Amino acid sequence: MATTFLQPHRKQTVPAFEVLSIDINRAKAISMDNVYTEAKALLKSGFCYWFDDEDIEDIAELYKESEDFQVQTAEMELSLRCFEKPTEDNPHSSYMTTTEIITYLGYYTHHPLSLKHMGEALKRAGFEKVSRRRDGSSPVYVYKIRKILPCPLLDSYSSLM
Question: Which PANTHER family match (predicted)?
């Protein structure tokens, strides 16, 4: 399953780093009982083991530095390939919910897509999320997007079928 280690919009973040070498004998010599004891003592003392609000500001930089460790999701690839942000010179746009976007892409690919991953991909790609009323009903959150037509997936996926 594709995942990213660092997600700048969340507090559940694991910074990735590159290991250049490991001294396995030295690592084996570390007492796991002592590691557990120290971790438990830190926890009891109130040690802040998570990123607080001040740290969140630094996550964007950590995120950029860890690009080599990130896996691009299918949702991100498809959103970047099939949609673009409306511009001043090409303002034609659609307002689509995440579900509508996944349904639209489903016509061209049989790859299972996740609502959560699609929402994260659209946000990360900088698509504008707005609240709109449809036919006088309750407001819904939609993304302001411009479909790339004809859909670029037509050729690539139709040749695979």
Answer: SLR0554 PROTEIN
